[in-house]
């Protein structure tokens, strides 16, 4: 797992200073927030898993089916 993954034509990464998911559609030249800052958990790692993203967090494993816009406990 890592802090940046390729998923459905985008790069997604964890921004640790904002504790949010960011995306890039231009190979990382610019980044935009996809999820708001999480106050529930701290993102640690990301993994692409077919149609979903998996995130290891300070509160366990979460998944997203909408490119990291919302997260649900696995």
Instruction: Assign an overall shape.
Output: globular
- Determine the structural class based on helices, strands and strand pairing: mainly beta
- What ranges have pLDDT less than 50 throughout 5 or more consecutive residues? none
Please report the number of helical segments: 0
In total, the number of strands is 8
> End-to-end span in angstroms?
16 Å
Model description:
This protein has 74 residues and is mostly beta strands. The chain has one domain. The chain has no helices and eight strands. The chain has strands at 4-7, 10-15, 20-24, 32-33, 43-49, 52-57, 60-64, 72-73. The strands form two sheets. The chain has a four-stranded antiparallel β-sheet, with no helix packed on it. Strands 5-6-7-8 form a four-stranded antiparallel β-sheet, with no helix packed on it. A hairpin with a 7-residue loop joins strand 3 and strand 4 (32-33). The model has no long low-confidence stretch (mean pLDDT 91).
What order do the helices and strands come in, and which of them pair?
Elements: E1 4-7, E2 10-15, E3 20-24, E4 32-33, E5 43-49, E6 52-57, E7 60-64, E8 72-73
Antiparallel strand pairs: 1-2, 2-3, 3-4, 5-6, 6-7, 7-8
Short description:
This protein has 74 residues and is an all-beta fold. Helices cover 0% and strands 50% of the residues.
Keywords:
four-stranded antiparallel sheet, 8 strands, globular, WD40/YVTN_repeat-like_dom_sf
